[in-house]
Amino acid sequence: MKFFKVNINTAAPRNPEASILLIYTGGTIGMVSDKQDEHLVPFDFSEVIHRVPEMRQFKVMLTVLSLDPPIDSSNIGVEHWIKLAQIIQVNYEEYDGFVVLHGTDTMAYSASAMSFLLENLSKPVIFTGAQVPIGRMRTDARRNLITALEIASAHLKGKPLVPEVCIFFNTQLLRGNRATKVESRMFNAFNSGKFPPLAHVGIDIEYNQTLIKAIAEAPLKVYQALEEQVAVLKLFPGISPAVVKAVLQSEGLKGLVLETFGSGNAPTYPWFLKLLQEAVDRGIVILNVSQCEEGEVRQGQYETSLYLRQMGVVGGTDMTTEAAITKMMFVLGQKLSIEETKKQLQTNIRGELTFRG
What we know:
Layout: E1 2-7, E2 18-24, E3 31-33, E4 40-42, H1 48-51, E5 60-66, H2 78-91, E6 97-101, H3 107-117, E7 118-119, E8 125-128, H4 141-153, E9 155-156, E10 159-160, E11 165-169, E12 172-175, E13 180-181, E14 190-191, E15 199-201, E16 205-207, E17 221-222, E18 230-234, H5 241-248, E19 255-260, H6 270-281, E20 285-290, H7 303-311, E21 314-315, H8 321-333, H9 338-345
Parallel strand pairs: 2-5, 2-6, 6-8, 8-11, 18-19, 19-20, 20-21
Antiparallel strand pairs: 1-5, 3-4, 7-17, 9-10, 11-12, 12-15, 13-14, 15-16
Helix pairs in contact: 2-3, 3-8, 5-6
């Protein structure tokens, strides 16, 4: 990691209104064309003020922390999430907020993971990125970066407006563990179909304070353990016993996110139920989430999900797959009993699910 300190409060540098740590991990937002204009290459983020001169209008003390070398978000893994949580922990008292620049492909996974690793968060951690590189003329990078910085530094009566992990993109501020990437060619890359946006951005930023989490009164607690022996199994009509068996009998598997149909329905083939039951009996924790972008799991509403509930599959209500898999990693990483693990998966611990009772 390399640190680059940049003071963008040119009017009154000794009296900034907020201090923000900008963490650049990689992604499209930090790309510019090379000298031959043939390839996109990362630029030195210590020079971000030259790329986005509008940032000089902020009365904010900005510190840039750049991952060296930057990584494509497709290569993001558990070790990066833990390192990112450690960076926030080390710098937590020094800064009023954090902005994480990240590739869009796995941003929802990273934001979800960070929400679980950071307990009792009382400061903003805002993820953002871009669909078009910052070096291009018609880019969304500048707008996303500037707005994310504004949200991260926003205070009301001395307290941050958004004390949680979020994704800001295009015109919406979304809870990080409720977001999903839905677009690769349009600027509105993320959606939160199962939970309303925390803010809409137009001429003004309109915050929905009734949805934003309250500031935690307890001290920040940062977890540093995630279980990697997990998998996702997406069901589809005609899925074969060999495929299901290959996943459920993977060596060392400890947790499975099962993407089911509709409100949590799955095939009732005897072979399928037998393989699931055997996995549950071996101590593999299975979490049922819906494939529907705006759906939720209600195990037992139909006969095709009643069997799952009876055998001990955990219903994930309206969790996204991104939140479900990272929460599975997080909860299993705490080395709890099977029953306590299942209880935690069904408990709303970071605003990731809507408890139905």
